[in-house]
């Protein structure tokens, strides 16, 4: 497999973020535990990003009917489910020592878990189709309907009043985080985003090849059935 | 035929089919009641605890088994019927509306039936029970629309019986939360208007989504 | 979509009204945990009612024996005594926010479940003083 600029950029930024995450000083209260944030926060960001990409690509497919959009939607959902799972797992590993429990019924945790299962349902649907056009069409409809429900899910679970800290960085007046820590965090968010782009690109190329192979297979079967084996001696019927 | 007549005719057809087959009344409802029966067996007979958790269990049973109501046999037109309706010029939106309305009525009946079973088995304390007259239809409407959309998305697939619940249940989380929190609000005497509004918003969003996607799903029928 | 405009436009209008109503008119209580000020003196809370209580651990109030930890939490107005069954968590210390779950008999809150309410700030050792009490309660 040929290495391409996007792949090289993904590896490069990831390596930089990895070093930055290890070099910056630990948090005063949480100590080294807090370093898990450099994986957790970007994973959660990618979970939301992939959902948005899936929504946009689904709408674009329904509008222009190009399978390229469908492949992007599917690839984004596939990458998204991995990072949603990673965000949940790292959150639990962090939550056990800090909150004292693996899981708590906090709004953002529940929302992430629901998102995870919406992704799984979407991917299970995609896997059930043989015909790429049919798959594209049906999953685009689900992509739009499901993602539109996410804000509603968000509000309904938020009204439980959560324990999760409010967003740390997205706050214009007074960033609640020290400069080196912030740098490492932003670095890892950037790295994860580039990795996301590289993975989605690769994955949708693979899907394109798969679809092509399928078409070729079907076409081959039809073409082959027209050619009958030569019969020797005139044949019987 | 105009849209309204189409909807009425198709809905009558589905309800008649259900009346003959009795899938909801004789299969799904008993199954739901059995589920209500198994939970006290699993967690032990702690009467105050059961009184407290009864409504919540009721709503999760409604969500999980309501999916079966939305996917009942008569809501899934077989390919031949589909083709026939399409050739006859039946509007896809009329078909969506008819299936949703039929499912809505059946879900409502299922909710009432399971509700009596919950009353009998768990004895929950409900003061302002008349609010349920708003709560039950709002929940049934949302669930019937999600179920119909998901059923159309997965129609013609072999894996549909396991696929549809996985698609429906996560999306239906706001319905469960709204219904359960409103019931909890009734129990403790808190305000429930917020949750009723949430349910109404979910229903409206789904109605718009159903109408907008009906034609698109019809186009891609397998 | 022209055919369904008669439905879609009213539906969109209804949606806007519902959302607007929800956003601006509802101030229900949606309590995930209560604070001591809501609990102390509230006669309607029965001994059998299980609920969650949140507050900040009062400095100097922590004492523990083999199986329980006793401490006080405050919301700045009222203070309640908590008897927690089981070992406290790693980050449990004076001044942190905690959410405990259990019952209240009018004098003592008996808890069997504790969650540390994590503070919002992250600081390096030389990056400033860490004083949660300045920001609690943050709601």
Structure description:
The complex is a heterotrimer of chains A (237), B (222) and C (139). With 237 residues, chain A is an all-alpha fold. Helices cover 74% and strands 0% of the residues of chain A. Chain A starts with a helix and ends in an 11-residue tail after the last helix. In chain A, 40% of the residues are buried. Chain B has one domain (3-219). The radius of gyration of chain B is 18 Å and the shape is globular. With 139 residues, chain C is of the alpha+beta class. In chain C, strand 3 and strand 4 (79-85) form a beta hairpin. Classes of the chains: A mainly alpha (237), B mainly alpha (222), C alpha+beta (139).
Structure summary:
Chain A is mainly alpha-helical and 237 residues long.
User: Helicity of chain B, in percent?
Assistant: over 70%
Number of strands of chain B: 0
Low-confidence stretches of chain B are none
Largest inter-chain interface? A-B, 29 and 30 residues
Examine the secondary-structure arrangement and name the CATH architecture of the domain at 36-120 and 130-134 in chain C: Beta Barrel
Give the quaternary arrangement of the chains.
heterotrimer
Q: What distance separates the N and C termini of chain C? A: 46 Å
Mean pLDDT of chain B: 87
Ends apart, CA distance between termini of chain B: 26 Å
Give the helix tally of chain C. 2
SSE order of chain C: HHEEEEEE
Averaged pLDDT of chain C, please?
73
Gyration radius of chain C, in Å = 22 Å
Low-confidence stretches of chain C: 122-139
Helix content of chain C: 10-25%
Largest beta sheet: strand ordering of chain C? 1-3-4-6-5
Overall SS class of chain B = mainly alpha
Strand content of chain B: under 5%
Number of domains of chain B: 1
What sort of overall outline of chain B do the alpha carbons produce when their principal axes are compared?
globular
Most strands sheet of chain C: 5 strands, mixed, barrel
List the helices and strands and how they pair.
The complex is a heterotrimer of chains A (237), B (222) and C (139).
Chain A: H1 5-23, H2 37-64, H3 67-99, H4 107-127, H5 132-158, H6 179-226
Helix pairs in contact in A: 1-6, 2-3, 2-5, 2-6, 3-4, 3-5, 3-6, 4-5
Chain B: H1 3-21, H2 23-43, H3 47-70, H4 79-87, H5 92-122, H6 132-153, H7 160-171, H8 173-188, H9 193-219
Helix pairs in contact in B: 1-5, 2-3, 2-5, 3-5, 3-6, 3-7, 3-8, 5-6, 5-9, 6-7, 6-8, 6-9, 8-9
Chain C: H1 5-25, H2 36-39, E1 51-57, E2 63-64, E3 68-74, E4 79-85, E5 97-104, E6 108-117
Parallel strand pairs in C: 4-6
Antiparallel strand pairs in C: 1-3, 1-5, 2-3, 3-4, 5-6
